[in-house]
Amino acid sequence: MAKTYKIAVMPGDGTGPEVTAEAVKVLKAAAGKFNFKVDLTNFDFGGERYKRTGETLPDSGVEELRKFDAILLGAIGHPDVAPGILEKGILLKARFELDQYINLRPVKLYPGVATPLKDKGPDDINFAVIRENTGDLYTGTGGFTMKGTPHEVAVQSAVYSRFQVDRCLKYAFEYARKFGKKATGRGEHNTLALCGKTNVLTYIYDLWERAFHEMGQKDYPDIKREYYHVDATCMWFVKNPEWFDVIVTGNLFGDIITDLGAMIQGGMGIAAGGNLNPEGVSMFEPIGGSAPKYTGKGVINPLAAICAAQMLLASLGEEKAADVIEKAVMFTTANKLKSLAAGKMGFSTSQVGDIVAEKVAE
Ligand code: IPM
Ligand code: MN
């Protein structure tokens, strides 16, 4: 009997619904081709619902989401809602409550895609960032004293437990063993690089560094270990991206370096990520925002959302289907699109979805 996956779809705000529709189109094409079923349920969490009801992601919504095999998210962010409310109330709440402790962000330049890096091609830009997704400055630990007075003090602390660090490192080492350059025939070693700031953040990244080498020595002697400071990481992403294989880092540094990563792989039109709970429910998203100015115009690039759907299927164990979607995306970038930028693709949003879906079904 064909397997059925229960997938929660949260199109969200702005262009989220447009790109999500194309990702769903491709999911369905893959299901048809690979003999599994997707049982989709829509959720309207986002800015419009917040404006209507004052609700972001209620606890009951979290409980609903727990019942699914995976979540596909479009975009969160609304021009009429103050920054922070939807991000914290929906996106971060889902990540925290569902304990999606890994944020996996592949940085892969597909054929035909323009990178701003001169003389770099798909062989040079092909690595993955594993961003810890529950700790660090994102925990909201801190506060104000004397707020609103000239003596106001604000404190916001980076927080990491050994437990959080270890479970993230374990995922990262395993990932490097399975998908590193040696494992995938792209190099001599599987390498995991820790990105930190051990010269200044001498508590947090000291903990990370000790945990990294202890685990590496004991359980993953086959994996080459490297260390880069976060500022240097940014420099090398631009100058020598080919040095990188798998990178593991804390939540805030991961947030920052993956925007840079997205740019060198061709921009927000193509960059996708997974918020993973390897033992629970994971959520996949294009990492660009809701792009309000393009909303409803049919010009936004759906490939990032399609790549999120591809990662979703890989996480469910439908690796063949995921692989075919990725190849279809590569076919599309190599042969069809003029540019990845909104309005410059040479096709509408839904036409791009059609091209990929048809290729998948072939
Ligand atoms: C991301 C985003 C979020 C983050 C924001 C919207 C809270 O920038 O997914 O990278 O900082 O994690
Ligand atoms: Mn970000």
Quick structural summary:
This protein has 362 residues and is an alpha/beta fold. It contains 11 helices and 12 strands. The protein folds into 2 domains: 209 residues, Isopropylmalate Dehydrogenase, CATH 3.40.718; 151 residues, Isopropylmalate Dehydrogenase (3-Layer(aba) Sandwich).
Notes on the structure:
By secondary structure, the protein is an alpha/beta fold. The chain has two domains: 1-113 and 267-362, Isopropylmalate Dehydrogenase, CATH 3.40.718; 115-265, 3-Layer(aba) Sandwich (Isopropylmalate Dehydrogenase), CATH 3.40.718.10. The protein has eleven helices and twelve strands. The strands form two sheets. The protein has a ten-stranded mixed beta sheet, with helices on both faces. The chain has a two-stranded antiparallel sheet with strand order 6-7. A hairpin with a 7-residue loop joins strand 6 (142-145) and strand 7 (153-156). Helix 5 packs across helix 6 and helix 10 packs across helix 11. The protein is globular and about 55 Å long. The mean pLDDT is 97. It binds 3-isopropylmalic acid and manganese (II) ion. 3-isopropylmalic acid is lined by residues 87, 91-92, 255, 287.
Q: Biggest sheet, in brief?
A: 10 strands, mixed
Kindly state the percentage of residues in helix: 40-55%
The counted number of beta strands is 12
Q: Give the uncertain stretches in residue-range form.
A: none
Count of individual helical segments: 11
Class of the largest domain, according to the CATH hierarchy? Alpha Beta
Strand content: 15-25%
Mean pLDDT: 97
What does the radius of gyration come to?
Answer: 20 Å
CATH architecture of the largest domain: 3-Layer(aba) Sandwich
CATH-assigned fold name of the largest domain: Isopropylmalate Dehydrogenase
| Quaternary structure annotation | single chain
Number of domains: 2
* Ligands bound, unique: 3-isopropylmalic acid, manganese (II) ion
